[in-house]
Amino acid sequence: MDTQAKRIMLVKYGEVALRQGNRAFYEKQIMDDIRRRIKDLHTGNIKVIREQGRFLIEDINGDLDNELILPRIQTIFGAIAFCDGIKTVARTMEAFKSIALNFFAPRLQGTSFKVHTKRADKRFPLTSNEISADLGEYLLENIPDSRVDLHNPHTVFRVEIRNNAYFYVDAVAGEGGLPYGSAGKGVLLLSGGIDSPVAGYLAARRGVGLIPVYFHSPPYVSERVTDKVNDLRRALTAYTGEIPLHTIPFTDVQLFLQENVPVEKLTIFLKRAMLYIASAIAAREKAHCLITGDAVGQVASQTLHSIAAVNSAAALPILRPLTAMDKHQIIEIARRIQTFDISIRPFEDCCTLFVAKHPENKPNTQVIERMEARLMEMGLRDLLGKATSTGDIAK
Ligand code: ATP
Ligand code: MG
Fold first, then answer.
1. Of the bound ligands, which one is closest to the alpha carbon of residue 190?
2. pTM of the full predicted structure?
């Protein structure tokens, strides 16, 4: 019989649904993101519909290619689950049984399952429990090597009866978080290391749009590092969509500081210089925060004293999403988001060039600020301004 079954992808979103006030805004962001990511697959046939607190992706012809679509949309922040399913206008148990068997048998074979029914349309003659029981029994009889387990099933076969009927099985988990860009924008200080791409990913996952900035010191740091940072930027675009990289020429600032500050304090001054420039870019780009890959206590520059001595150079709040993490946790995320292999390529780091073997680990913020005020007069201010305005923006 013709069950008028259409293959669909169901996209569930979680936290977003709880935020009543902003709900429509969040929903639109996710919906736009889905559309953008499958745009090139559009033959005009694919529709993205918002329905009952989730999104439905369907093809007018009924033959949606979920294997093609899933990798595109799995990295959307705000989505918590993706379910491969079937939608039908047919409303008889015979049609349901035929759909369940035709489309889902391979996934129920050899496993334990249970049927869970939600009947939103109370006009349907059977209750939810009756539908589940009837369908469960039918599938058990007709799918070899399947078992029903109501308490701890391997697979939950879901049935929803609304104006249409929907069928789907357990979902592929989504990223969660909040829709990209919904929280505003932040300037990400992106080095070639392991940490800052992970920090960027974590901030983006909470809705912060990323403006990556890299401080480049040629010829002391080679162009290969620019390529590397650009590859890290590209890896992040799997989540964020296109984000241009700002490359700031940092050599003059670096040389000036090397010449004019004691070597054990150099790292602090370099970091402050980065924060001044990043803040200026943030103002220009109307961003709301800075984001760094700082962790607490890995190296001398990351003691709480050092963080304090660096902090006052920033004109905006600094998000440091990694401060609560162990290195192995950071690496685990770096691997999952595919930045790790890029980050471990050998590179020179402008912060470790010509830096003391034993940098000061308890710098005094007032002392640093007084020294810096003098340096500003001596030409640092001009160098910072020049670096900010000559940055190169590239995709
Ligand atoms: P990462 O692994 O991200 O390089 P790290 O553990 O090496 O971090 P630091 O070198 O102290 O730590 O840098 C701390 C943070 O400062 C980095 O995570 C990054 O946000 C920022 N940073 C350092 N160097 C640069 C640079 N050349 N360009 C942009 N940001 C930088
Ligand atoms: Mg580094």
1. 1
2. 0.91
| Residue-wise pLDDT tens digits, 206-237 | 999 999 999 999 998 999 999 999 999 999 99
Mutate to test the pocket of ligand 1, among 230, 351, 353, 355 (most ligand atoms within 8 A of CB): 351
Task: Show the domains of the chain with their CATH numbers.
Answer: 5-173 (3.30.2130.30), 184-394 (3.40.50.620)
Return the structure tokens found at 42: 């559009």
- CA-to-CA separations, 196 to 96, 215, 244, in angstroms, rounded: 50, 13, 16
Cα separation of 228 and 197, whole Å? 11
**How far is the centre of ligand 1, averaged over its atoms, from the C-alpha of 73 (Å)?**
30
Atom of ligand 1 nearest to the CA of 267: 11
Tell me if 195 CB under 6 Å of ligand 1. Answer: yes
pLDDT tens string 95-148: 999 999 999 999 999 999 999 999 998 999 999 999 999 999 999 999 999 999
CA 170, 118, 69: angle at the middle one, nearest 5?
35
Ligand 1 contacts CB of residue 275 (under 6 A): no
